[in-house]
Specification:
174 residues; alpha+beta; 2 domains; five-stranded antiparallel beta sheet; two-stranded antiparallel ribbon; 7 helices; 39% helix; 23% strand; globular
Length: 174
């Protein structure tokens, strides 16, 4: 955890907009625990011994802070994923017997269940899973890293959210 804290650049003390102060390590742990599935805010109250309102504010603040600081890396890390790396990924996949010589990753879809919403029920209802949900899709590289993550989509959307385009002669996901 200390290495993750340093790599993300989380400050020693987090000051929430409400004026509350928390250690950066605790704020990161609160966010990570909330993102682990399944759990609820009430579960975090017992673990961190803080009021639900403080936990909720911390989760929202940390998610926003991390997205502002590192969000660009979720969509496409052009510094790390370049033409040479993509060629190496394609070669690794091809060596394992894939019929396509230019496959650099694998699409992974995740359906995250939600409580039944009071509005937009039809858009969020996933008939396949028979629950209200939002969907995320990502591209996972052969080394196990997620190299592209899409925004959330309504649970009823059934088709792929990726569109392939050309940029500088290299196919990439939009």
């Amino acid at each position: 955890m200390p290495r993750l804290l340093a790599a993300l650049g989380v400050p020693d003390i987090i000051t929430l907009p409400s004026g509350q102060h928390l250690p950066g390590m605790e704020a990161l742990c609160i966010l990570l625990r909330r993102l682990a599935y399944p759990n609820r805010l009430a579960d975090l109250v017992r673990i961190f011994r803080r009021p639900a309102s403080t936990l909720s504010r911390t989760i929202n603040y940390m998610a926003h802070w991390l997205h502002q600081r590192h969000g660009r890396l979720l969509y496409w890390d052009s510094e790390r994923i370049n033409a040479n790396v993509m060629q190496a990924y394609a070669a690794a996949v091809n060596r394992k017997g894939a019929p396509l010589p230019n496959c650099i990753g694998f699409i992974d879809g995740t359906v995250r269940p939600l409580c039944r919403p009071s509005r937009h029920q039809r858009q969020l209802y996933n008939g396949h899973k028979r629950q209200h949900a939002i969907k995320f899709q990502s591209v996972m590289a052969p080394d196990g890293l997620i190299i592209h993550l899409s925004r959330p989509f309504p649970g009823r959307r059934a088709h792929s959210v990726y569109e392939v385009g050309q940029e500088n002669g290299v196919e990439r996901f939009a």
